[in-house]
Structure formats: C-alpha cells, structure tokens
C-alpha cells in the first residue's frame, strides 16, 4: 500500500503493526475454500421431496431468528449457516428433515462458539421433532462435517473477513489521523446484520466469503459517499474515497477478479435495495413463513441418508 499512500500524500502505515492483521487475512484466505459449499449441487437431480435452494434460504432465515431469540453472537449464526450449507452440498436431504437439520446446525455452532443453548428449549420452539431426533441429527452433522476431529479449528466465514477488513480500514485511517474512528461511520453490528441478510439469499451465498464481505463494505461506503456528496461534506468525501481505495487494494490482495466482484455487487445490491425499500416487510414475511413451517408436530422416523453422487468435496 506504500505507493498508493505516497500518491495520496498520506504517511504509510507501520508495516510491523500491520503484521497481526495481515496474518489473520492470509490465514482466512488459506482455508476459505474449505468452508465454501457448492450450493449448485443442491439443484442437481432434484427430487420433489428434496431440499431446494429456496428451502435453504428459509432455513437460513430460521437460523437468524434463533440467533435473535437466544441472544447469541453473530458468529453462531454464520457458523451455523456454514454448517448447513456444507451439509446440503454434500448430502441429499429430504425436506421433512430440514427443520431438524437447521436447529441441529445451530446447536452445534453454539456449542462450537462456546455459547450455552438449552437443547430442550430448542426442541420446544421447533415443535416438530423430539429430543432424540435432535441428538441423532447433531451426531450426524458432526460426523459428516468431521467436526469432532477439528475441535481446535474455528470455521472461517464471511463475518471473519468483514471484521478483518474493518481492522485494516481502522488501522490505516488511524495512521492518517482523520479525526474519527472508522467504526463511527461503519457500525460493525449493523454490517453484520446486513451480512446475515445477504447470506440468507442464495444469489449471494454462492460467492466466496472474502468477496461477499468486501462487496458489503463497498456498498455501504458508496452509500455514505452519496450522502456526503449531497451534503457537500468535502472532508468526509475525501476520507470515504480513501476507504474505497483501500478496498481496491484488498481486492488485489484477496485475488478477487473484477467480474466476480461486479456479479456479486449486482446481486447484493438487489437484495439490499429490496430489503431497505420494503422497510423489512420481506423479513417479516419470512418470519411468518418460518412460523408456519414449524407449526406442526410430526414424529420423525429413522433418518435415511442419500449421499450425493458425485459429491464435490469442499
């Protein structure tokens, strides 16, 4: 970033202090594809009773509801969504088992992230399966995703990339002494919530985590820039342009192709504009559908697995 910094007339960041952040980014990029599910597989040779990508989106929205209901960190949602997508991309799942699978992924993720979630309460909320079903599905999820063998590893999600990107922006802008912190204009909690919304839509979930997180940041900064131009806030305009420049350099660092960035940006923009313009009506509708989806009780028979063939490993 040194040459770009010189062009802007700003002091170059201390490379030594950037090392921990750079290391975290390199580590996340190294394992990104391991946790990248191939959602296209869900639609291959699809039978009428099997889970579709639309079913997948409803399930991910249920994960959002569970996170809010149990008041657990965002990491639990992102880890659970990753587990769900990995499972669906590796195994054929009948639609009648999806609710149990979704809740089981949430329970395993909460356990992985060190959060105490009452399994009895999960079963009571979900209504259409019993504790034995949950225990059985939790065991299957752990076995198929080999989670018990990787307890020392944390799942890398788009939220991890978002936080790393924010740390890069904060560090560089603090070196430039702009007079305010990046988190004063880019609220991490709001960004994570909006990232959840994007991940709950399969048109965005297809993309790499590093791409989706970068696109969200770019989308939010450009929106702030539009407001700053309208308000003629010249100092803020300059700083926001600097932030976009840093994102451009992050794009090169993460080896994100321009076409990939544009395609993801278009999809993410459509999702966020629809969400914002409808004043969350779509989300409310999803909640209503989720309640109907789990409003009946049907004892589950033995879970029959049908392995995808061929199965693309992630």
Automatic annotation (TrEMBL):
Superkingdom per UniProt: Eukaryota
Record domain Cyclin N-terminal: where: 50-146
Pfam family membership, one: Cyclin_N
Protein name per UniProt: Cyclin-I
Underlying gene: CCNI
């Amino acid at each position: 970033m040194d040459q770009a910094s010189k062009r802007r007339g700003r002091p170059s960041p201390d490379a030594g202090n950037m090392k921990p952040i750079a290391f975290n980014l390199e580590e996340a990029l190294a394992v990104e594809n391991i946790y990248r599910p191939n959602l296209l597989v869900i639609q291959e040779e699809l039978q009428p009773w099997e889970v579709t990508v639309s079913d997948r989106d409803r399930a991910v929205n249920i994960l959002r509801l569970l996170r809010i209901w149990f008041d657990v960190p965002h990491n639990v949602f992102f880890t659970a969504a990753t587990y769900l997508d990995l499972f669906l991309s590796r195994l054929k799942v009948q639609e009648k088992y999806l609710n149990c699978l979704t809740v089981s992924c949430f329970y395993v993720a909460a356990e992985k992230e060190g959060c105490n979630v009452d399994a009895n309460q999960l079963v009571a909320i979900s209504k259409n399966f019993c504790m034995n079903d949950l225990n059985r599905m939790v065991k299957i999820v752990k076995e198929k995703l080999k989670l018990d063998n990787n307890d020392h590893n944390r799942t890398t999600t788009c939220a991890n990339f978002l936080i790393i990107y924010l740390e890069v922006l904060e560090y560089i802008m603090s070196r430039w002494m702009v007079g305010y912190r990046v988190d004063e204009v880019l609220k991490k909690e709001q960004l994570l919530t909006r990232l959840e919304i994007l991940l709950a839509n399969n048109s965005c979930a297809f993309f790499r985590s590093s791409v989706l997180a970068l696109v969200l940041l770019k989308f939010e900064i450009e929106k702030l820039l539009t407001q700053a131009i309208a308000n003629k806030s010249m100092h803020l305009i300059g700083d926001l342009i600097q932030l976009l420049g840093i994102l451009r350099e992050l794009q090169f660092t993460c080896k994100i192709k321009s076409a990939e960035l544009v395609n993801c940006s278009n999809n993410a923009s459509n999702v966020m504009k629809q969400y914002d313009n409808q004043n969350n009506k779509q989300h409310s509708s999803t909640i209503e559908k989720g309640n109907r989806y789990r409003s009946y009780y049907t004892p589950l028979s033995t879970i029959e697995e049908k392995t995808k063939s061929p199965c693309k490993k992630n």
